[in-house]
Amino acid sequence: MSQTSNNPWLHRYAIFVAFATFLLIIAGALVTSNDAGLSVPDWPTSFGSFRMPRMVGGVKFEHGHRMIAAFVGLLTVFLAAWLWVREPRRWVRRLGGLAVLTVVAQAALGGLTVLLYLPVPISVGHACLAQIFFCIAVSLALFTRPGFRWEPAKIIEDPRSPSLRKLTAGTTAVIFSQLILGAAFRHNGFGILPHVIVAGLVTLGVLWVSARVLAEVAVTTTHVAVGALVLAASLVVALEAYQVLGAPARAIQIARAPESAVGL
Fold first, then answer.
1. Whole-number mean pLDDT of the chain?
2. Does the predicted model carry a pTM greater than 0.70?
3. Measuring CA to CA, which residue among 152, 144, 189 is closest to residue 2?
4. Are 72 and 55 in contact (CB under 8 A)?
5. Which residues contact 180 (CB under 8 A, 6 or more apart)?
6. What residue ranges do the domains of the chain occupy?
7. Which pairs with CB-CB distance under 8 Å and at least 24 residues apart come from 115-121?
8. 88: cis peptide before it, omega within 30°?
9. For 1-149, which CATH class?
10. Could you please report the per-residue DSSP string of 101-146?
11. pLDDT of residue 1
């Protein structure tokens, strides 16, 4: 039997880390949208000091982003430590360790974007690694859910091509490619046309997956509904049979009742 987490507080904390990571991504996007990447020209200090600078202009976006990033980093270290102590599944503990390594690498890339004056490859890598870290955080929130089990794959025939597994994996890959192209466009790596083209592919993939999943749900729901109707029909037949077929026996008993009374 596969092991499972049974710590609801760990699960809630992992959800909080994932939510904080989402806010961090928004904060990073605000830095780029407001051209505030070099508002604080040094790293890891801010204007040569670790003290809070005046939060005006682009500084409030850049330094605010750094503060949230540091907070998320501490949250991630604590989550990994908690997993190491309380999580029975080794692969989940390792994923927590990977989260720490990812957030450290993300901080280093963020520092390099400042020190090297926003080079496009590093800026794009910084943006994409943020999405990868967010995926890790969301995965940890899922895997720490009480009762979650990573069961062996069930062999269910999927005659349609492509299979739902391949379709969802391909759609996920296209979405991540779209994120890379979007980051490259935002950091002036190239024009918007590739981003728009892949956006169309993303839309197609999402609609295709949605249609397949809804079709599966519809089939399952129909199956349950038909089963309920069959059960109800069987119950009605059983009740009718009990009433009709049981009547002669009751009639015989009633007919014999006067004879018994006469005998008395």
1. 83
2. yes
3. 152
4. no
5. 124, 128
6. 1-149, 161-264
7. 115/42, 115/43, 117/38, 118/37, 118/38, 118/187, 120/184, 120/187, 120/188, 120/189
8. no
9. mainly alpha
10. HHHHHHHHHHHHHHHTT--HHHHHHHHHHHHHHHHHHHHHHHHTST
11. 45
